[in-house]
Amino acid sequence: KKYLVQSSGVVPVSTTSMIKYTNIPTYTAPLKVYQSTWSVDPNKHAKQIYNFTWKLPVDVGFRYLVRLHLCEIEPSITENGHREFGIFINNQIAETCADVIKWSGGNMVAIYRDYVVMMEGDRMEGKRDLIIALQPKQAKAILNGLEVLKLSNPDNNLAGPNPASSATRTSAWIRSLRKLILAFGSGNAIATGVILILTLLNIIVYQLNFWGANSGESTISSWEGVCRCFSLVEIQLATNNFDDELVIGKGGFGPVYKGLIDNGNKTTTTVAIKRLKSESKQGAHEFWMEIKTLSKIRHINLVSLIGYCDERQEKVLVYEYMAHGSLADHLYYKNCNSPLAWEQRLNICIGAARGLDYLHRCKDG
């Protein structure tokens, strides 16, 4: 519960029923892990869809094995589809439709799912939050246990060097200054004064550059914890260098491309890539505000922001890809063979209303 975001509305739930280790060895995790889980406090979230989110600080520059221990312990949930939820790791889709009953084969049956995550970046950055989120579709999500294991790099190293602090760098300059003054001696006042002034100027310029560089990095790296930062090369590879044949839509922001991104584990994900037009009125401030807003949003009726690119005057947003097309495509039969049934249209209207309500109220519902 220490790493659970908004833990005030969550209560522990447990069972004394015997857990079946049908699919995994009994030593995978203790019995108590699969006999307990977290649930939403009905007094606080009676009519809301509650998203579980964990933030765990980990070292940058390493891979991590994320193991989710799962077991359906609620007696009323016994069939496929009774409880479905999405799994997001670092704002990337790990599972669009997790179903514990379907995976395990029944109630009170223990299973686990493994995911490998790369926390990209320079090890000198220190720690960054590894974010794991469960987004329910109808009934609340379930997670019995969570393990995060740090994997060694090819050099068998599990730790990075500690960065030198700005105070250490400044003290090194001061020590050098003292040596220079002693070398010239107090008798040569003019030379000593010139050296003193030049050295002080160097210290000031160095510190300003250092602070400026760090402030820029902190602005960017702060978003890397919540969504992925793509290089321009990755975006160009994903879109075949912004091939017009891959354009799936256009808007005020600019064209939207269908692309493939590398997940880093020999798999790819289809995404929607929105490229800011050079003549667009949306500037850098609006671009970052959109990232700030969308990176915090996780709702079943809203498209998720996967990442962004801000390089060489190119500003790009990468979204979850909607494989079935837009609503307009279906309403006007564009690339769609059959019209939507009225029940489907009603469900779409309800879903859109829930998404808008979530955006306006900035909370689950």
CATH homology superfamily of the largest domain: Galactose-binding lectin
Approximate shape: globular
CATH class of the largest domain: Mainly Beta
Write down how many β-strands occur, each being a DSSP E stretch of 2 or more residues. 15
Unreliable sequence segments: 161-169, 210-225
Give the amount of beta strand, in percent. Answer: 25-35%
Number of domains: 3
Cα distance, first to last residue?
23 Å
Record the strand order, biggest sheet: 10-14-15-13-12-11
Number of helices: 8
Mean pLDDT: 76
Give a summary of the structure in a few sentences.
The chain crosses the membrane at residues 180-205. Residues 161-169 and 210-225 have low confidence and may be disordered.
Please provide a written account of the structure:
With 365 residues, this protein is an alpha+beta fold. The chain has three domains: 7-151, Galactose-binding lectin (Jelly Rolls, Sandwich); 166-219, no CATH class; 228-323, Phosphorylase Kinase, domain 1 (2-Layer Sandwich). The protein is 29% helix and 27% strand. The protein is built from eight helices and 15 strands. It has helices at residues 31-34, 100-104, 166-184, 189-224, 232-238, 284-294, 327-331, 342-361, and strands at residues 10-14, 36-40, 52-59, 63-70, 85-89, 92-98, 111-118, 127-136, 145-151, 228-229, 247-250, 255-262, 268-275, 305-311, 314-320. The protein has a six-stranded mixed sheet with strand order 10-14-15-13-12-11, sandwiched between helices. Strands 3-8-5-6 form a four-stranded antiparallel sheet. A hairpin with a 2-residue loop joins strand 5 (85-89) and strand 6. Helix 3 runs antiparallel to helix 4. The protein is globular. It is a single-pass type I membrane protein. It is found in: Membrane. Keywords: ATP-binding, Glycoprotein, Kinase, Membrane, Nucleotide-binding, Serine/threonine-protein kinase, Transferase, Transmembrane, Transmembrane helix. Residues 242-365 form the Protein kinase domain. The chain crosses the membrane at residues 180-205.
